[in-house]
Write a structure and sequence with these properties.
The protein is mainly alpha-helical and 349 residues long. The chain has 14 helices and six strands. It is 52% helix and 6% strand.
């Protein structure tokens, strides 16, 4: 009974379902890396500068040094874009799989080292919630598995290359079937190479590549349509269905009405300061606050306050941190008139 169980388990581990699973796993990783590369190529002005500048673990100094020079950064960006694209394409179609797996594992390892999900090294660029293990580490380990497999042992174009052969059948021996993936593939004869079954295995990834190309074209078309629909829109949310129409200052029919706090007359609508200070209160979306700080430059804050003035808003409630005070000082020196309602936290005792 034990021998039968061992034989059954060995057959499962070397059978078509097992090899098909490895093929799909390789294609999935290739799909992901290929699209990551193409997305960076298609994105205008994409750069790895933020990713490199926020690196403070092993080789953090090297990564920040690379980001400090436009010429070095251009080389890094080029290698990222085309490295991901070519590695992903090779994995997807199964061409030079071992080489692509080695290069891909190294690249993903660099991503992991640059932004590790370790305690004390949390980054504002993290996409989700990770602790030690993240998608970069997982995919690097998966690619390490493909490095260990014999070339041409999985379905893909590798089987058509002269230096690689077809998949050698496992031989049944006394202690059960040998693991075919541990054997070096035997070279196919020209006659067997043209056999329909072998050719289908060698080109098995081409339909997946076709679906990939179709989906990329559909996504590009969708994005271009969205740009046409929302051209001129300052901001949209998920329920937005059509172009938004914004009123101009000249369309205002009056000023914001006034109210009183004690002896002070202020506009009944006041300007808040969370966005100026960069506090988005966005829960787990930790990238939003740094995004706000990047968008709200000094000039943008002053422009916002000027718009408030034009609408009759004459008061802003703002924090008392040094950055806010610095911007307000610059705004008032430029002739600004909005009053500051200071947001303070008095200490007890």
């Amino acid at each position: 009974m034990s021998d039968l169980n061992n034989t059954s388990t060995g057959a499962l581990a070397t059978g078509p379902a097992f090899r098909a699973g490895l093929f799909l796993l390789r294609a999935a990783v290739g799909w992901h890396l290929l699209y990551e590369g193409l997305a960076k190529i298609f994105t205008p002005h994409w750069s790895s500068v933020s990713y490199l500048k926020e690196s403070y673990w092993v080789f953090g100094g090297l990564f920040r040094w690379l980001a400090s020079s436009p010429s070095r950064l251009a080389v890094v960006d080029f290698l990222n874009e085309w490295g991901l694209t070519l590695i992903g394409l090779a994995l997807l179609v199964g061409c030079f799989t071992r080489t692509a797996a080695i290069l891909g594992a190294v690249l993903l390892g660099l991503y992991y080292v640059a932004q590790p999900p370790l305690i004390g090294f949390e980054s504002s660029l993290a996409e989700g919630s990770y602790l030690i293990v993240n998608k970069n580490l997982i995919e690097a380990l998966v690619l390490g598995l493909f490095v260990l497999l014999p070339p041409g042992s999985l379905w893909g174009i590798d089987r058509l290359l002269p230096r690689f052969g077809g998949f050698k059948r496992s031989a049944v021996v006394a202690d059960g079937p040998r693991l075919a993936l541990d054997e070096s593939p035997a070279r196919l004869s020209p006659r067997s190479l043209l056999e329909r079954r072998e050719l289908m295995k060698s080109l098995a990834a081409l339909p997946i590549l076709g679906v990939f190309v179709l989906e990329v074209l559909k996504k590009r078309s969708h994005e271009e349509e969205q740009l046409r629909r929302f051209q001129g829109v300052d901001a949209v949310s998920s329920p937005t269905r059509k172009i938004l129409r914004f009123a101009d200052l000249k369309d205002l029919k009056g000023q914001v009405p006034k109210g009183h706090i004690g002896n002070h007359e202020i506009s009944r609508l006041i300007c808040g300061g969370n966005l100026v200070a960069g506090f988005a209160h966005s829960r787990d979306l930790i990238y939003v606050s740094p995004l706000l700080k990047t968008y709200f430059t000094d000039d943008k804050v002053i422009e916002t306050l000027r718009l408030c003035e034009a609408c009759g808003i004459d008061t802003a409630i703002l924090r008392t941190d040094e950055n806010t005070i610095r911007i307000l000082d610059k705004y008032w020196k430029r002739g600004g008139s909005i009053r500051w309602l200071a947001q303070v936290y008095p200490k007890e005792g």
